[in-house]
Amino acid sequence: MGDIVIASGKGGTGKTTLSTNLAALLAETESVVLVDLDVEEPNSGLFIRGTETKREIKYKQIPQWDSSACTLCGLCQRVCNFHALIKLGKEIMIFPQLCHGCYACSDLCPVEALPMVPVRMGETRRFDLDKLVFIESRLDIGEEQAVPLIAQTKGYVKDTFASYTYRIYDAPPGTSCPVIEAARSADLVILVTEPTPFGLNDLKLAVETIRQMGNPFGVVINRYGVGNDSVDQYCETEHIPVLARLPNDRRAAELYSRGQRIYTELPAFRSELEKVADYIKKLSGSKR
Amino acid sequence: MKEIVVISGKGGTGKTSITASFTVLGAPTLVAADCDVDAADMHLLLKPDMAIREDFYSGEVAVIDPSACIGCGRCAQVCHFNAISRRGRTYEIDSLACEGCGYCSRVCPTRAISNHPEKAGQLFVSTTRVGCTMVHAKLGIGSDNSGKLVAEVKKRAKALVEQQGKELVLVDGSPGIGCPVVSSLSGASFVVLVTEPTVSGLHDLQRVCELVEKFKIPSGCIINKSDINPEMTEKIVTYLDSQHITLLAVLPYDESVSRAMIAEKTIVEYEQESPIKDQLKNAWHRLGDFLNK
């Protein structure tokens, strides 16, 4: 127990709000690392202002054609399921945006004419605050594939912060590959939603996804009071624990807009957030 | 034929509510396309009938035949996606993690691994309650290739515009800057950016603008919930100016948008008074002017 992923089907429901406030609250008593895995649009760093202590460029591996070694046998083109390289006349053309980095062309080339070379895809930065470490990965604009950067970031966090009590991950929105990569092997997934028809529809998609993966999960309802009780009803019918109901309060939206912490300013928000923290502590206590 | 794509970078800024409102306003002239295939919501407001449903296949997924597997582990060694693990005496593939590269099947000494086309989702062609046609989709869980599904949705919508003698495809794009967004943007005549005056709203707007810039598509911006943080709204306006992006509308924070959503209506149809209605109508007319320039 210790890897907690904050996710949601719908964007803009409060993943970053919950991640940053929860991490700060837990860090009052425990060692916590907060990791922003929404590499396409990383936002947590706007709310956590620490000192940058590390910056690393992240690379993905792409084949590079060595024309002097190549015999133009065309095997590489046949083994690539992504059409990321084609043989055109006496040349092998490579399309890096289509490459998934599976290594098949490179490893199977009989004359080693396609060595894998690192190509920059983004960067990972570490920030240190009093009791909180914050890790942010950021995909370069124009890069289309988030999954390799998410996987590398998770690997780095697992290696470096294994001794920390909690590793909290702010996941990308949606239900496709980037979310799956972020939520893999999580001890707890918290799905953030809002009590509206859009919120409910996207929550259902997220629940379907997490159920297929088999991770334990619970729901936090944000902006509680703005809509109707259909999300409550759904969770009850599906036996999904609702960990907290964060109140709909214009002041919360205003604090968020300035990049400020909410739980320290709004007691009603804090008491709900503490329910999430207690749930996590209880869960990790029972697993130890 | 013109194509307007509405995107937001950050989620939850009101992109879908605004796109659905535009669809209502322009229904006789357009075909709507919901390209937020990951978490599609526009159907909740426009009530499409899903008259045509098709399975969408894209990519492959590998499967190991346990009766042919000798447990040598060669497949797991070559897999770069951690999708293959030992289970008893044989190996097994996690279909959610498998990217369908086919490397494992090429090295398996007993040919125990085969690749199967993966059902990536479903595509729908519908008539909506406001009369226009809508193309939408549901991505399969954990599916790769959302970019391809987006491309397919757009292709269908464009064909329908031709067939029906309409003028415009209106696209609800997806959040982020990755492959589904790139796919949403390709071929667009005008991009509408929806943002909100928050630190993250501005940050994500800047990233998505950089992407739009690469495509050289003219764009306009709608600032939603503007009175939550007037100074941030000012900052966004200044930024838009510097980038030569047209300011289409500045909307106030208004919970009647949520109430309209619960009543399954767009805000422009909702009976309660809201300042947003007229501003959206105005923005829609201005968009028309841009396209006809």
Describe this structure in words.
The complex is a heterodimer of chains A (288) and B (293). By secondary structure, chain A is α/β, with parallel strands linked by helices. Chain A has 2 domains: 3-58 and 122-287, P-loop containing nucleotide triphosphate hydrolases (Rossmann fold); 65-114, Alpha-Beta Plaits, CATH 3.30.70.20. Chain A contains 9 helices and 11 strands. In chain A, the strands form 2 sheets. A 9-stranded mixed beta sheet of chain A has the order 3-6-7-2-8-1-9-10-11, sandwiched between helices. A two-stranded antiparallel sheet of chain A has the order 4-5. In chain A, helix 1 (15-26) crosses helix 9 and helix 4 (147-160) runs parallel beside helix 5. Chain A starts with a strand and ends with a helix. Chain B has helices spanning 15-26, 42-46, 74-78, 103-107, 146-164, 179-185, 199-215, 230-242, 256-262, 275-292; strands at residues 2-7, 30-34, 52-64, 84-87, 90-93, 113-127, 133-139, 168-172, 190-195, 219-223, 246-250. With 293 residues, chain B is α/β, with parallel strands linked by helices. In chain B, the strands form 2 sheets. In chain B, strands 3-6-7-2-8-1-9-10-11 form a 9-stranded mixed beta sheet, with helices on both faces. The interface between A and B is large, with 58 and 62 residues.
Descriptive terms for the model:
heterodimer; A: 288 residues; alpha/beta; Alpha-Beta Plaits; 2 domains; nine-stranded mixed beta sheet; 9 helices; 11 strands; 27% strand; B: 293 residues; two-stranded antiparallel sheet; 10 helices; elongated
Would you spell out the secondary-structure blueprint of this structure?
The complex is a heterodimer of chains A (288) and B (293).
Chain A: E1 3-7, H1 15-26, E2 32-36, E3 51-63, H2 75-79, E4 85-88, E5 91-94, H3 104-108, E6 116-128, E7 132-139, H4 147-160, E8 166-170, H5 177-183, E9 188-193, H6 197-213, E10 217-224, H7 230-237, E11 242-247, H8 250-257, H9 267-287
Helix pairs in contact in A: 1-9, 4-5
Chain B: E1 2-7, H1 15-26, E2 30-34, H2 42-46, E3 52-64, H3 74-78, E4 84-87, E5 90-93, H4 103-107, E6 113-127, E7 133-139, H5 146-164, E8 168-172, H6 179-185, E9 190-195, H7 199-215, E10 219-223, H8 230-242, E11 246-250, H9 256-262, H10 275-292
Parallel strand pairs in B: 1-8, 1-9, 2-7, 2-8, 9-10, 10-11
Antiparallel strand pairs in B: 3-6, 4-5, 6-7
